[in-house]
Each structure stands twice: as C-alpha cells, then as structure tokens.
Amino acid sequence: MKHVIDFFHHLLLPRQSNNFRSKLLHHDLLTAYLVFALVITLGVSHFQNQNGSILGFATDISTQKLLTLTNEERAKDGLSELSYNLKLEEAAQKKAKDMFAKDYWSHYGPSGETPWDFILDSDYQYEYAGENLAKNFLFSGDVVNAWMNSETHRDNILRKEYSEVGFAIVNGVLNDEETTLVVQMFGKPLYPVSALQKKMTPEATLENDSIPAKIPNVEAVLSDTETNLSFFPTYLNINLVFFAVLVFALFLDFYFASKLKLIHLKGKNLIHIFFIIFATIGTFIILKGSIL
Amino acid sequence: MEIINYLKKELQRHPFDYLLFITVGVFFIMALSIFKGERLIEFVILLSFVSFYIIWGIYHHVIQNSIHLKVVLEYVLIGFTILFLLKIFILP
User: Fold this and answer.
1) Residue from A275, A277, A283, A284 whose CB has the most chain B CBs within 10 Å, to mutate
2) How much is the pTM?
3) What pLDDT score does A52 carry?
4) Residue A249 and residue A194: Cα distance in Å, rounded?
5) What secondary structure letter does DSSP report for A174?
C-alpha cells in the first residue's frame, strides 16, 4: 500500500524523486500525451477512410434513441406515442440525400422542393406533416434537447395531431465539409374516413388538395441502420478524466511550488489550467450542432 | 486560504497578461457558440486559440526574461495535445 501511495505522490506532488515537479507534467509524459492524441486522431481518420461513413461511428446518434427521446418528450406533455413509419423514414432519407446532392441546408430546396414533396414521393398520404432538421450533432440526446429548446421545433415534436414519425441520419459532404444530417419527418396518415373532415396545416394544404385519400401504412418497424457502437461517449469520458487529472496535477504543482518557493524553468501553471478549462467548456459546445 | 493568497499574488503580479488570456478565452467560447455546427470554422477557432495560447506563453516568458526552449516546448506539447484530442469531436 505504501508503494502505491508513494507512486501517486511521485506522479502528483513536487518532491525530490521527481525533481520537484509533478511527474505527470514532465516533458517525457507531456510528449507521450501528444503522441497518444496523435495516434487516436490518425486511427480514427484511418478507420473512417477504410469504412466510409459508417453510421453510428461518425456520430453516436441512432434512430431508436431519437424515437425514444421524442416519445419521452411527448409523454411528459401527456401526448400519445408516435409510431415509427418506414415511408416517413424513406422520405427523410430522400430529403437528406437531396440536401447533399444539391448542397443546401434548408427546409426548402433550391428548385423549390418542399418537405411535403419527399413525403408524397414516398407514397405517404398525409393529413398533417412536419419536419425538423439538425446537423453535426454527436449525440441523440443533444439533438432532441436542441429541438426542445427551440420553440418552433418543440411545437413540432409536441403537436398532438401527429401519430407517426420517421428519421434519417445520413453522412455526406455539405458546403465542402463532412456533415451528419438528421431529418425528422412527422405525419398523420390520411384515412379515407377522416379525409372528409380533415383539418390541414397551411403547408400541407396545397399538397393535399390534389391527392386522393388512401389507407396509410401503419407499420411500426425500426430502421436497421442503428448500431451499438459507443465510441464518442467513451472517448468524451476519457478526455474529461484526462483534463481533470492534468488540472489537478497542475494545481498541486502550483500550490506546492508557491508554498516551497521553488524556482523552476517551466510554463505558467495557472495559464495551463485556464487553457484546459476553456478547452473543456469548448468541448461541450462542439458536441452541439445546429438545427433548422 | 493559503492557496487563495498564492493565486491572488500570481494574478496581481501579471494582471494584464492574465486578463488578456481570459478575454481571448471568453471570445473563444463565444465564437464556438456562434458557429455551432460549422465544423470547419470550429476547427479554425480552436486552432487560433491553441496558437494564441502558445504565443501568449512565448510573449509572457520573453517579458519575464524566463524564456527557454523547454518552456516553449511545454506550451506546444499541451496545446497540440488538446488540439488533437478535440479535433476528433470536430472533424471525426
């Protein structure tokens, strides 16, 4: 036990055995951190190049998680659960692919394409329909949180008229940069019976007037594009632990060096600490993408 | 309490340098928030902040007459380690 305590003292506290500088802050270990970071970066890039844009690796977003979180938000408001619809998923996939193909980030395409075009094109006849978009998020929870923090997107998620939903999570190049798009399509199928007394949304009106009523698809099957890879949560946790240990070592080094009035040729520990704190805050901002 | 005194003493010794760093740090956070989701811009912002951190170190130690290759290396090693670690989140 004494050896273990001694080892941690050697790692963290300035004393004779480590030349009065925490071992964790010695140049050889700082170099090892850099090499390790470089290896991880190159490893991830290599893996990406070898496997292409594997869904679930580029991000930790999954259809099932998005569906669960969306339904949880609706349940909090006492609304019915949305069932998963493959035609809406197909519409969302088409929308995402169209955005990549025509290089736009908007609800409406450059040639006037509307979200309703993709829904109708997927053979989904709707009474009500809606769309939420997100890009460059890393976690499903952050996507749904961002939507819930935006009034218009929240209204879409909590709209009582919707009964079905479909998602697409697609990787591609948008505006010359690797992008992960999340498209959420809502809908309520147009039943022949209800067609007579339908109340249409302003967006849906134009589309629906010329569409004959049809019995909707009521399948509730999940997409097969989900993966269980959890690289990002693990990587995030490792990073946070590493930052915390580094800040702790810098803080102890600063305290004991000040207390013992040690004179060392070294950088400013306080600035290193500030830098790591700003980088940590930055990490949490970087995890968030943008919504539309 | 002792640690607070050391902190105060250190901050009072170089108020401008620390103020400058914290100001740029706040701008770094603001810039990331403004350009959320724009991966390339986020990376440029991060790279600029890391570069500023290294330049700050060199400037500070030149002014303090304590510049040495080992000191510069310390800033470079920490700066680039953080850069590479965060790069995976920005450009996976």
Assistant:
1) A275
2) 0.78
3) 54
4) 67
5) E
